TrEMBL record:
This is ABC transporter ATP-binding protein. It comes from the Bacteria. One of its GO terms (molecular function) is ATP binding. Pfam families: ABC_tran. It comes from Nitratireductor aquimarinus. Signal peptide: none annotated. Residues 6-235 form the ABC transporter domain. Keywords: Amino-acid transport, ATP-binding, Nucleotide-binding, Transport.
Length: 240
């Protein structure tokens, strides 16, 4: 097997006086989708934000594509090939969809072929290309948020709860887009509370509890074992 695209070893992160991440060990296999699962408040979002550098790890190491990025600034991590889709979307409401996309293309002008591919997986982007992003619906804003991370080919995408609060038709579009992204060879680490989506997209799963990774394995193994789900997360995917 190839080396993981991302490796966290003993990562600890504090936010103010709170000790959130407690010696997190996590491998993200290359070219696949890893679901980061667990109940609310266990440290999933903090893990993603520590990887991208919004929060600095107090201890431990983060290795991406064979390089130690533990102390790199956020822009350098992005330039190294990591895309990030935050839970709060992170779009610029006063700018147009096109302007949001231009800003997201950090290496230069937005590639026309890449733009057309994004139009194919997220058709509303073409329709609202010249509209202010703040005027989009919630689902359209989420599409734009993910499209911004996809504006350039990245090695790894960190995606935080992309389907939260969205209608089933929008979720279906999201799942299709992420499948195409994976087919291009990208690696994805994704926090997701919708277990139907997790089961449909995930190759691997890592479950967090109280700031630690408490289980790793295949997504299929977790999805097919209601007893394991109940033990790890206090719920059953069969109910989703």
């Amino acid at each position: 097997m190839s080396e993981p695209v991302l490796k966290l070893k003993g990562v600890e992160t504090d936010i103010a006086q709170y000790h959130i991440l407690k010696k997190v060990d996590l491998d993200v296999p290359r070219g696949s989708v890893t679901m980061l699962l667990g109940r609310n408040g266990v440290g999933k979002t903090t893990t993603l934000r520590t990887i991208i550098g919004h929060w600095q790890a107090r201890a431990g190491s983060i290795t991406f594509d064979g390089n130690d990025i533990t102390r790199l600034p956020v822009p350098d991590r992005a330039r190294a090939g990591i895309g990030f889709v935050p839970e709060d979307m992170g779009i610029f409401a006063d700018l147009t969809v096109e302007e949001n996309m231009i800003l997201a293309a950090i290496s230069g002008p937005l590639d026309a072929a890449r733009r057309d591919w994004l139009f194919s997986v997220f058709p509303p982007l073409r329709t609202f290309w010249n509209a202010a992003a703040g005027n989009l619906s919630g689902g359209q804003k989420q599409m734009l948020s993910i499209a911004r991370a996809m504006a350039e080919r990245r090695t790894l995408y960190l995606i935080d709860e992309p389907t939260k609060g969205l209608a089933p038709a929008i979720i279906s579009t999201m799942v299709g887009a992420l499948r195409e992204l994976k087919a291009q060879g990208a690696s994805i680490l994704m926090v997701e509370q919708n277990f139907a989506v997790a089961k449909a997209l995930g190759d691997h799963a890592a479950v967090m509890d109280d700031g630690r990774i408490v289980w790793t394995g295949s997504m299929a193994e977790l999805a097919n074992d209601a007893t394991l789900q109940e033990r790890l997360m206090g719920l059953s995917m069969e109910m989703q």
